[in-house]
Each structure stands twice: as C-alpha cells, then as structure tokens.
Write a structure and sequence with these properties.
alpha/beta; 9-stranded mixed beta sheet; 8-stranded mixed beta sheet; 18 helices; 36 strands
Length: 756
Amino acid sequence: MNELLNTIFGLDGLGFGSEGARFSFAWELPAYAWALLLLGAAGLAWWCYWRIAGPVRARVGLGVVRGLLLALVLVLAAGPQLTRTNERVEKDWIAVLVDRSASLGVADAPGGQTRDDQLRAALAASGEAWDELAADRNVLWLGFDAGVYDIDPQSLAEAAGPSTRLDVALDRVLARLAAEPISSIVLLSDGRPVSEPSRGVVRALRAQRVPVLALPLGSAEPVGDWTFERADAPAAAFLDDVVPVRVRLERRGSAGSARVELVDRATGLVLDTQPAPEPEVGTTTTELTLTHRAADAGDSDWIVRVVPDGRDLIPSNNERSMSIELIDRPLRIAYFDGYPRWEQRNVKNLLLREASIESASLLLATDRAYLQEGAITISALPRSPEEWADFDVVVIGDVAPDVFSQQQLESLRDHIAVRGAGLLWIAGSGATPGAWAGTPLADLLPFTNAAGVGPILSEVVMVREPASERLGLLALDDSAAGGWPDRLTDPASGFSLLRYAQQIDADTVKPASDVLAAFARGDGSATPAVLSMRFGAGKVVYVATDETWRWRYALGEVLQERFWLPLLRHLGRASATRAGRAFELTVSPREATPGRPVRVSLELLDQALIDSAPSRVSVRVRSGGRDAGTLELAPEPGEGSVFAATWTAPEAGRYDLEATGLGIAPGVSLRVRPDDDELRTPDADHAMLAALAEQTGGRILTVADLSRLPEIAPNRERRTEAPPDVATLWDTLAALIAVLLLVAVEWVGRRLIKLL
C-alpha cells in the first residue's frame, strides 16, 4: 500500500512507510479548528443545494461532492506533507585517570600486594564494563604522575613516576574535553598527591557538573615505614671482641614500634636484637648500638635489619649489609707501671688469664730496673715505631716518663698516630698524669692542664655515660642489652665506693674526646672518669682511678673483666685495620630538595689534626661519577674542631661528599629528592579522595563498583536537531488530479440534472 501511495504522489526517498516518517501539515491547526472548518464546508455544500429544484438524491450527491471538494481544498491549503525529524546524538565522555607514580609500588594493598597490582587486578576484573562503556560512550584513558599522558589500559608501564600531580591531571582533563559533554572522571589512585587539588579546580568541576568517582588504592589505615639512614661497624675485630654496630634509623609516616636485629648472613643466626628507640620530639631519626662477641675467625657477612611490629610500606629498605674481618690471633698488649699497686696486680692477672690476649707486663723504676711478667718477653724497651709494632695496645699506669727516652716516647706517639695502635692510661697518685705534661705523649692525654689534675677529696661512685652505649663499652651487668649494674651506683653497697679518683675539670676535656663514664659525688656533682679520644689513626682511653679492684667484692673478677677487656679490644681494633677515622663528615638534613640549602659540617676527631689548626677544609662534591664542585668549610665560631658551610644542590640526584687533604675517612652521601617526592610520606590518603569525591558530587568506588560503571556514571549525552526532511503532498500531481476529479464529477452531475 505504501509503495502504491508513493507511486501516486511521486515520492522518492522520503515517502509513506519510511523510517521515522510522519504525516503533518505545514500549518498545524488544532482539532477543534479542523472540526469547525469541515463542519463549515459541509454546511456550505448543503446550503448550495437545499433550495435548488431537482431530484433529492441528485442534490444530496452533488452536495456531498461539493463538501468533499471544499474539504480537500482546506486540507491542501493547510499544506499536507511527510516529515522526518533529523536528530544528532553526541556521546558523552568518561575520563579515566590512572595513577602511575612510584608510590604504587608500596605493598599495603589487601593480601600484601602492591597498590599497582591491586589496580591491575581491578581493571582486569571489570573488563566487560569497560567494553560496554567504550561501545556506548567515549572513554579517555590518561596516566598521570608528575605529568599527564595517554595510556593503553591493556599494557600499563611500570609505575615509577616521581610524584603525583593530581591537580594538574584534573585541570588537563577539563582543558582537553572543553565544550564536550563529560559524564564523570574515574580516578584510580592511592591519594598521595604532592598537593591537594586547588579550590579553582574543584570549583571548575562543580560548575561543569563533573563528578569524581574515586577508587582508593592501598591501605585505608596509615602504614608507616622504617628505613636505614646508616649502619656502621668496624672493618676488623679480634676474636672474643664485643663488636659494636652503630645504627641510625629513620621512621617515616605513621610507622609503629620495631626491633632491630643483627644477623649472620651465612647461618641466619640472630646475633643481637634491640627495640628501636622512639625518635626525639620533632625528629624522625633514632640511634642505637647492636653488639656481638666474635667467636669465629675469618671474613663474616652481617645483616642489620629492622623488623616492624606491624606493617611496613617498603620492606626493601629494611636491611643493610656489612663485612667484617675477625682476626684469629691474640690481642698483643704491653703494660707499663711504676709499682705493684692493687690495680696493677688485678689488671696484670686479668691479661694473663685471658686466652685471647698475649701481654707483657713490666714494672719500671727510674733507675731503669724492671720486673717483667707475661707471655711476651721484652728484652729492651722499643725505640722505633717498627719495634712498637709488636703491640696493638700500650697500657701506661702510674709510671714516671723518665723511664723512657725521648726517642722511645716519640716512636710510641708515631706508633699510635700512624699505625693505629691504642693507648690506655690508668691514673695513679704518683706520676700519671701530672708528670707526663710536656712530654711527647702529653698530646695523647684527652684533657689539657695535666699538671693541675688532683684527687677528689671524697668517695665517689662511677656511672656510665651515653657515649659508652654508642660504642658498646662498659656493659657490666647481665642483661641482654648490657647496662650498668645498679649496685655500682649505690654507695650503700660499699664496694662501689672509690676512695681515689682524680678531679678532671670538664672545661679542660679536649674537643675530640668522649666521656664514657663519670664520677658521681654525694653532692650530686659529676666529673669525667673515663675518657676516649682519637689520635691520628689510633685511639686513647684515660681511666681517672686505680680502684676498680674494689668491685671484686661484688662478683669477683667479673666486673673488672667486663670493664677492662672491652676497652682494650676497642683500642686494638684500629691497629688491626689501620682504618681509624680522623674526622667525621655529616650533612643535615640527609635528604634535601633542589634549591634548599643543607648544612655540611666536618668534626675533627683526631687530636693531632686539631692541634694542626687548619684554617679551612675542602670538601669535594661528586654526582654520577662527575665532579659537581668544591665546598670550602670554615671553622665554627668558638669551635676549633668543627668546620661548616651551607650548600645547595642544583637538581635531584645522589651526591657524594669527600673531604680532601685530611687523610682517609669515609665520605657521606646526600639524596636530593624532587620537591614533590611523595615517598617521604608513603601512606595512602583515602580521606583526600573521599573529600574530592564529595565536593564534586561523586562517590567512592569499590572494586565491585567498577563492574557497574555503566549504571553509576551519569548519562550526559547531548542531542541536537537538524532541519527535518519534508516531502510536500499539496503540490503534487495527485492532489491536482483529485481536485479536478471532484470538480468534474460535480459539473457532470449538475449537467445531468439540468442545473446549468
């Protein structure tokens, strides 16, 4: 039928039966108007024929024909036509922002997987939803870290961006899809941006009614991170030596408590363990010392590791390795004293009993007569550094310097300064230290004004100082951590009271010296009791009493062994390796950003260097194996042993700083991170994502929600109408024929009834 009508009206293209075609009028009239017009046409036709003489049937028939003619004219006058609406549908856009920053490598997602693994698994599980979206809508995939770039979700590259610039990513989406209908922005991120989206970006999202649908990655609960800043151990030690390992830790973010372990790599045996101390208020770093008594000779590989009690964001930075040589030979000691006092007898017997020590003990008188004991026989006092080389440690008790020649004392000084030997002073009421002022060994006393040192005129007790804990020394009690027995600080115990001790003014202690223990008096005051100092490649310890033998009344020889033997081994280590540090170079802070000044300081630990009074110290800076300049350090006001300057790194990277012209000592490394380095606070920030979603009218998604994105994402498609297609019917040949046919029928009828 439709084809017949199309043929009658001569329609080609748009016609009856065409998709979307509908019949209409060029001038649309309401139904009541058509009713009145048609009623009027019928009335006019009736009026024209009701008074005419003639057969009734003929007049009725002619009236009907005229009515149809008038109705047809009215219809054609209204402009009958076929129309088809032309509507264009513009699909909306869904922008998917995929975080590709390095923080996605943190393994705090469910099941212990990384945030990036969680992201990839979520995309894979919702694959059908993404296919459906791609069929019905425009989907824009963008990766972002410090910048924004197109990505293929099927082949994501490693997440290694230095930072998360979420504000830039959101702004770039709005700029790229300007004037386009945007359904929503799907954000897949851990919410660890350098800075939160600006108010301007949020206002633009709200103004354009673009909701952010965020899928938070990682743990919703804060999980901090422990990392090593440094871990130092001596390069070598003797068997049965208590080896200290100094550890400096940094606690980042919301890390909880942890313990630190010293582990033998070969056996997996835990050699020592301690809880990580709480950082001081306002800092993120903490220090502690692990110790182990070496029992097996040879090269050993040790691991220092921090074991958090809870979750840790970056387990890969929880270990440091170190190598140490354990020397299988006795520690060789020469002990010189002036008379057989109680301290001399106990120390001498202690050296004789200790299987890991070979010693020569001599009582020297000013008339050159001497009494010798020990496993090593000295036929003549050493006269050169080479002859002194048979000894790792030299102990000088209360002996007058006159028993040595000037050459012997000078060669002993060189043996300590150059070969790294140790020197132990044991004070006495006779010659030490006063008689040694003005001798070649006067510089090896850790204090000035030796001639003015006198006895303390009261009984005292000895207490341990923090410096000894850092060095792993003076650990006299039975606890695993090794502390100071309470009975030694309690005057009521009796044996703890030392009746002879020397008064060393704290103001006379040399800058390179550490106070390992102090004398505590009844009035609450304290003075140095045990002092340690570096001198050249070697070390010096001064003990300002000769009454530790009184401790025998507590536990026999135990306390004296724990007091003297670690001190002697501590002094002998540098001789074994000849690697004693003459200075310490530090950078604060150890991590910086480009353009931010850092403080570079160098502290002279070698009294010989301090005595040389350098005016400036040069520090060479290297980066990537290339020179990055030289820094000149100037003396700090009032500090003869500390030199400092500020330095600014021009760009991110690792910088190695080494002092020049002061001998061999370890340098220091400085990490310069970009301004927007996000791993400084590696916790995920789900609260920020939730706030962004709420402010933009979006929502937080779960992994399951990704599969329902076609339902969740609002439909913002845009429909626009073009001029419709029109096929007119009133001006066709068929319309003309219909009119003429009705006119002809009426004319013929009138002729037949003889009305014309």
